[in-house]
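Researcher: Please predict.
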Amino acid sequence: MQQLTKFVKTSSIIALSFIMLTFAGCSKGGDSGSTTPPTPPTPPVVITESDITFIVKIDNTEVNYNGIFAVVGTSVTIDANITSTMPKDGVEIEITVKNKLDDKVVVFTEKPPISKTASNPVTIKGLKPGVHCVATVKVTSISKASNTVTRTFDLAAK
């Protein structure tokens, strides 16, 4: 009987040890014991914008930026024609015409509404025959103010 008691005690200790080890190895609901690092946030999408390029056209021909354009009459329609990809928010165009001899004398100035089209015609008015002028056309991106280009050319009414 003593052997039976000893056997039961030994078996009980082994069985209890086995049960305790089994439960110790099990995980609690959802806790696997390993940690997964959080997913880093997605970086913001950066949209790059092409540098603005444009030409100034009169009668569908690019002006000669180094010569003097002869205007017949006292007005002429120019086209600030955007040749690059249009910025997503459009462009602002400023046209200023000043007297060549006295650049404080502004002959004409205009700032049309924001444009999202390639062709941007503007009629320069108020030119006086025989007065040499300098026209400045400045195109600036609305979405990126540092993206700006300026072109100048000379003109004179006959």
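Model: The chain has one helix and nine strands.
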